[in-house]
User: Fold this.
Amino acid sequence: GHDTIRPAHSLSSVGTQYMASVDSVDDVSTADELHLWEVTGTPAAGDVVITHGAHPAISPLTSPCIETELACAEHLGGDKLIDSGDNRLLEAVWREGTMWLSSIEACDWAGDPDTRSCLRLIEVDTDASTVVQEITYGAAGMYYFYPAIRTDEDGNLVTVFSRSSASQYVETRVAARLAGDPPGTLSESVLLKEGETAYDPGDYGSEYRWGDYMGA
Assistant:
């Protein structure tokens, strides 16, 4: 009864494995809460317990690319749009009581007549099972999709993602935030790899698949 349940990569020592998912609340794939799980014990000891715990609220998270092609991504030279995905959680990382989650959402920017795909990053305090902050990241005229995330031992966050537009090939970019930065903020992105040609993998559905599983 849940979309993809994402186990968190545990980046520091822990006795509990954390997992998360979002809950779709209507037929346009909009989620307004998280589902959090804790897994304790080991298979060897035969004492594994999975606890479906808190359901903290989040800002409405709407799938960017659904049957209506709400915000499937344009890209230079493409015969079809790129499937920028739905609102399921793409990645989860945990370190020292903090879990970061990444997803994609549909965004409307001031002065932009079109809906675009953009990034959603969510910080969760797993001790309190509460949402600490949410970051929506994108820009008018551009499509942002498939964010991968990692934190370092100081709690700084990095995200690697794809970006395209009607006048731009798909490229790879990176953005980050220091642990002490104001809540809800992320740095300007930096180009990692420029797109070199139009993306055309062949006849595959109504949109092209791209980068569903990326790493940082």
Observations:
- The mean pLDDT is 92.
- The chain has no helices and 14 strands.
